[in-house]
Write a sequence for this structure.
């Protein structure tokens, strides 16, 4: 009996082990392709890891080589494909980038960041606006399981932000289509209207965004919706008071509706900002426009003065003073360039310094034109038409 027990203990484990070995060998024979795939996947993940490391270290050529080796072994790795596409963008090889993004999305259709990149490259680099719009719409329509763990993880917020970016980018794409179609066409107006609607949806999700407000204003400006454009420019200025383009475009809009004095003030602000940024080419362009506005404003003032002189005393009303901001150049021996900018704000001298920047930022955040556009009545003759001055 003891002999049988010993024999059983020795033989049974060996028999069981033999059965497992036999099953394994049989599975290898039957599922050979699956085992090869798993082995390749391990090697692929190793090369992708090396590629990620090189990518983070900005060694792009090495990253490309490692990613290619990894994807040859493990083609389903969508993140590696997207990263490879991003590297191609840096090398301005946009067609290869699009190819990698599309391949990544075949394996992971809900890879939102990759789809967004595909839309941006298609629109901004290849002018394929239709493709970009389709990709942005897919991002908006994609439903993902959202998880909210306080202080740890919040996919609800990230999903909302992605959709906001998609609406904003869609607006840019529609505006691009309008520009390609040409001015003063029904198609261009239709695309601009779609751009405006896309910006509106983005603003519902993120109203304190300079870029969204500015581009929303720009589209309305071109369409001839001057009231909406003016208010949106003011919102943009409130968010980024030192962005010269919002001040400049607001000045052009004010000039269009005949508010020369206010236009002049916004141009002065934009010139001060550009001077602070030391961009002489833009500064000269703005100065040329400023000179035209000052000339027209002077003519208007002379006409009003003549009218006041001939009008009854009861009809002459005292105008309200508005903040006046100018910039002058004065000689300074301590300045290696020979000149130094001095800024006058409401009669107060503010030297070029960090204090001046803070003063300008605080002062420029106020948008006096806001009241003008709140009370502005749209002229049906201008609605839907392009501004010649813009």
């Amino acid at each position: 009996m003891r002999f049988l027990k010993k024999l059983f203990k020795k033989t049974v484990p060996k028999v069981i082990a033999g059965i497992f070995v036999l099953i394994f060998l049989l599975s290898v024979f039957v599922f050979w392709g699956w085992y090869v795939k798993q082995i390749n996947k391990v090697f692929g993940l190793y090369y992708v890891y090396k590629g990620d490391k090189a990518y983070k270290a900005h060694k792009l050529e090495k990253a490309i080589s490692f990613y290619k080796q990894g994807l040859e072994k493990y083609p389903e790795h969508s993140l590696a494909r997207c990263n490879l596409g991003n590297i191609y963008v840096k090398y301005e090889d946009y067609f290869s980038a699009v190819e990698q993004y599309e391949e990544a999305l075949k394996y992971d259709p809900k890879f939102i960041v990759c789809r967004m990149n595909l839309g941006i490259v298609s629109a901004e680099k290849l002018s394929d606006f239709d493709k970009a719009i389709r990709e942005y719409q897919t991002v908006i329509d994609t439903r993902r399981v959202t998880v909210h763990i306080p202080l740890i993880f919040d996919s609800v917020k990230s999903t909302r932000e992605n959709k906001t970016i998609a609406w904003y980018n869609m607006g840019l794409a529609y505006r691009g289509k309008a520009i390609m179609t040409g001015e003063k066409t029904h198609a261009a107006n239709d695309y601009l209207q779609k751009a405006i609607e896309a910006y509106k949806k983005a603003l519902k999700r993120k109203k304190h965004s300079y870029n969204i407000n500015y581009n929303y204003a720009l589209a309305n400006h071109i369409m001839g919706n001057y009231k909406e454009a003016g208010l949106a420019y003011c919102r943009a200025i409130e968010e980024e008071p030192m962005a010269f383009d919002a001040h400049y475009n607001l000045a052009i809009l004010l000039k269009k509706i005949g508010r020369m004095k206010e236009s002049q003030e916004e141009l002065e602000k934009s010139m001060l900002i550009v001077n602070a940024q030391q961009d002489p080419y833009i500064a000269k362009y703005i100065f040329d426009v400023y000179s035209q506005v000052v000339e027209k404003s002077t003519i208007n003032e002379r006409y009003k003065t003549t009218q006041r002189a001939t009008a009854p005393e009861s009809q002459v009303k005292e105008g309200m003073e508005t903040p006046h901001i100018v910039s002058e150049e004065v000689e300074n021996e301590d300045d290696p360039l020979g000149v130094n900018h001095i800024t006058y704000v409401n009669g107060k001298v503010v030297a070029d310094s960090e204090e001046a920047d803070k003063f300008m930022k605080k002062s420029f955040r106020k948008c006096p034109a806001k009241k003008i556009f709140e009370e502005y009545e749209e002229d049906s003759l201008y609605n839907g038409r392009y501004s010649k001055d813009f």
Remarks:
- The chain has a mean pLDDT of 78.
- The chain has 16 helices and five strands.
- Strands lie at 148-149, 153-154, 325-331, 339-345, 348-351.
- The first helix runs from residue 2 to 30.
